[in-house]
Amino acid sequence: MITRDQVLAALARVPGPDGVTPLPETGLMSDVAINGDRVYVAIRTEPARAAAMEPLCRAAEQAIAALPGVAGALVALTAEASPGAGGRPAPARAAGHGPGASRAAAGRNRAAVPGVRHIVAVASGKGGVGKSTTACNLALALAGLGLSVGLLDADIYGPSAPRLFGISEKPEMLENRMLKPPVRWGVKVMSIGFLVDPEAAIIWRGPMVMSALQQLLREVVWGDLDVLVVDMPPGTGDAQLTMAQNVPLAGAVIVSTPQDLALIDARRGVAMFDKVDVPVLGVVENMSTFICPACGTRSDIFGHGGARHEAERIGAPFLGEIPLHMTIRETSDAGRPVVISEPEGPHAAAYLSIAKAIASRLAAGASARQAPRIVID
Ligand code: ADP
Question: For 185, which of 107, 132, 173, 223 is 20 to 30 Å away at the CA?
Answer without folding.
Answer: 173
